[in-house]
């Protein structure tokens, strides 16, 4: 029963994350008057994200926000999943050099 509920919630949020009509971001000014710089940030007043926080806590909320930011960074028009290399040990996107180095280490001598 719990597994079914978890699968339903994952499907629901996967659909929400990919919904380009839902735009839980806002633009904030972050430069001086001479330099017009803007940054796209999560809208803390977004109802769906606030409901996520209330229902499941701050850790799940942060994961949802991180997912939104990453999807929007890769493809803001559709927010569909794009595969990328990750270095989980150092918690960052892996460079091509890191990937090649790892592959070379994995080759038999």
Automatic annotation (TrEMBL):
Residues 2-107 form the Factor of DNA methylation 1-5/IDN2 domain. Transmembrane segments: none annotated. It comes from Coptis chinensis. GO terms for biological process: gene silencing by siRNA-directed DNA methylation. This is Factor of DNA methylation 1-5/IDN2 domain-containing protein. InterPro entries: FDM1-5/IDN2 (IPR045177), FDM1-5/IDN2_XH (IPR005379). Pfam families: XH (PF03469).
């Amino acid at each position: 029963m719990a597994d079914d509920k978890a699968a339903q919630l994952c499907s629901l949020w996967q659909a929400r994350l990919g919904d380009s009509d839902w735009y839980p971001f806002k633009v904030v000014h972050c430069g001086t008057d001479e330099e017009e710089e803007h940054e796209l940030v999560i809208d803390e007043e977004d109802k769906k994200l606030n409901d996520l926080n209330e229902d499941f806590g701050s850790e799940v909320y942060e994961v949802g926000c991180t997912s939104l930011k990453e999807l929007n960074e890769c493809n803001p028009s559709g927010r569909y999943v794009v595969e990328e290399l990750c270095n989980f040990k150092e918690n960052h996107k892996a460079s091509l050099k890191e990937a090649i180095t790892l592959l070379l280490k994995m080759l038999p001598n």
